[in-house]
Amino acid sequence: MFLPNELIDDILYRVPVKYLLRCRCVSKEWCSIIDSNAFVRKHCKRTNECNRGGGVVISGDGKVFLTDVDSLRDDIVDVIELDDACVSGAEFVGVSNGLVCLCKDNKNVFVLCNPSTRKYRMLPRIPSVFGREFEEVEVPLCGFGYDCVNDDYKVVKIGEGEECTVVIVYSLKSNTWKRIQDIGSNVRFIPERGKLVGGALHWMTIKYPRNCCGFVFGIDLGLEQYKEDPFPDVQGTFICLVYVGESLCITDNYHESHTDVWLMNNHGNGKVWYKAFTVEQPGPFGTFKFIRPVAFSNTGNDVLLEVDRKKLLWYDLEKKTVKTIKINGIPVKFETHMYTESLFQLTEAKQLHKLSQDKKQKQQQKKGGFKLKHEIYLITGKMDVSDYKEGTTDG
């Protein structure tokens, strides 16, 4: 039975990534469909819309481990370690559309990884002309995300100086770093990674003089412009900005009392922030210094919480009950991040150039082959039908 490529495409893009990777071996036609940029984008879009249970990255002690959301419902969870040399000693930067960004060497070396395909790409080092701007910066800030305006992936690195704050951006499409507009010295960033929401990376910042309130500072990856959003009414001893469920989230920890969890209102009506839930302490999982929401369940009835970077648990928001997750083989302290499984190809820039050269060379060989056949025909007067058809397509 013969199926047209359009129908095969429509069937395959409903299949999870781990099975699609096996389907690539069925035939050259299937492999070509699955590897095409159009199919990769279409499949990623459907995965996000269907809110499929995706993957989980656990990082700590310079190591990176993988599991999936469904496994976190089991009593005991096993993980797979990424043992490639390029991720050894790396720490997490960000994740977008199935690509995970890691950094090494005091955020001077960046690596992109697709955990689903186990492919890596080392990014070019920051040019020395930019490097001087970060020489006196102890802890540079960075973030990673997808630029939907230009269909590009970007890494942002920020260095705070005495006179201004320097911002440089790496583009995967152009494979280059560039400097964008500086930020005034009156804006001070709270050290953390940028959180990607709505095509912009966000950090918590404070404006000086100190009587000014704090705000969330965003860098739009498409326009490469800045924007500001106010804090909610927080008064805790430890305030943290996180990303959870396609939204920005602020955890307001009142030491040995309770933690308020605020979510940003993405619907554009009413207040910018609303209080999602509160965790009292001592509560169902004892006392803690801070908690960080990682993900809400599909029903929204419970939330995956990371507690003091030491344990993961499911917290039922209605019943106030807890299910602790036991994970084998991970460091004592760790961070947990969700990612959407994707087929995105991390092809090196040099390889892309080589592929285009190979394609051009094959086309020249094809034309040269026809020329040779045509010359033989002039001599012998013989040419088969396939040669004739090939010749007519080239005029």
Major sheet, described briefly?
5 strands, mixed
Shape: globular
The overall strand count is 27
Number of helices: 7
In helices, the fraction of residues equals: 10-25%
Low-confidence stretches: 349-360, 366-395
Secondary structure class reads alpha+beta
| Integer-rounded radius of gyration | 26 Å
β-sheet strand percentage: 35-45%
Mean pLDDT: 81
End-to-end distance: 35 Å
Spatially, the strands of the biggest sheet line up as: 3-26-25-24-23
In a few lines, what is going on in this structure?
This protein has 395 residues and is an alpha+beta fold.
What does the model show?
The protein is α+β, with helices and mostly antiparallel strands and 395 residues long. The chain has helices spanning 5-12, 17-23, 28-35, 37-50, 128-131, 349-380, 385-393, and strands at 55-60, 63-68, 76-77, 80-81, 91-96, 99-104, 109-114, 119-122, 141-147, 152-160, 164-171, 176-179, 183-184, 187-189, 195-197, 200-207, 214-220, 225-230, 238-244, 247-254, 258-264, 273-280, 291-296, 302-307, 311-316, 322-327, 335-339. It has a 5-stranded mixed β-sheet with strand order 3-26-25-24-23, with no helix packed on it. Strand 7 (109-114) and strand 8 form a beta hairpin.
Question: What are the defining features of this structure?
Answer:
alpha+beta, five-stranded mixed β-sheet, about 40% strand, 7 helices, about 400 residues, five-stranded antiparallel β-sheet
